[in-house]
Amino acid sequence: MSAYELLKTVHVSSAALSIAGFVLRYLMMLARSPALRSRPARVLPHVIDTVLLVSALAMAWMIGALPPWLVVKIVALLAYIVVGSIALKRGRTLAMRAGAGLAAIAIFAFIVSVALTKSPLGLLDGFARLS
Ligand code: HEM
Q1: CA of 67 to the centre of ligand 1 (A)
Q2: Which atom of ligand 1 is nearest to the CA of 18?
Q3: Looking at ligand 1, which atom is closest to the CA of residue 63?
Q4: What pLDDT band is residue 122 in, cutting at 50, 70 and 90?
Q5: Which of 79, 44, 3, 119 is nearest to 11 (CA)?
Q6: How far is CA 59 from CA 6, 42, 97, 101, 117, in A?
Q7: Residue 83 pLDDT grade (very low, low, confident, very high; cuts 50, 70, 90)
């Protein structure tokens, strides 16, 4: 396995852990569980998301280019983080937090589709071609 393949495995694994952890914390938020404020629930996401981003940047550096689909992934990752934090803590009402959580999951699914298609439109690419 090349270094690039290893980084890709680390990247995809940390992406899976990131969304699994987010859904878990989202359910804790909806259930108003105090576990949401526990140390692992506060610290682990930062560790996982750092590994996700560092492996991504290392691969981008190895590719030696920043094609549009990678720029879209970076911007969408920032949106996932901001909308995710509204869902887990910053949203003022439960309805706001619940809606933001669904939006964060949708953004994550979009990022995966951008990764698989290597198109900046991701799964929306097919629709764009139809019109
Ligand atoms: C939540 C955020 C992210 C998710 C869910 C995600 C998901 C994925 C997935 C599933 C793959 C594997 C695609 C395949 O099997 O062909 C992948 C590959 C990759 N991602 Fe991400 N990614 C994220 C963020 C980023 C960011 C911010 C960057 C930009 C620096 C990035 C750069 C890459 C690169 C360079 C590859 C390898 C492409 C290849 O050689 O096939 N990813 N990502």
Answers
A1: 12
A2: 1
A3: 35
A4: confident
A5: 3
A6: 10, 27, 33, 29, 17
A7: very high
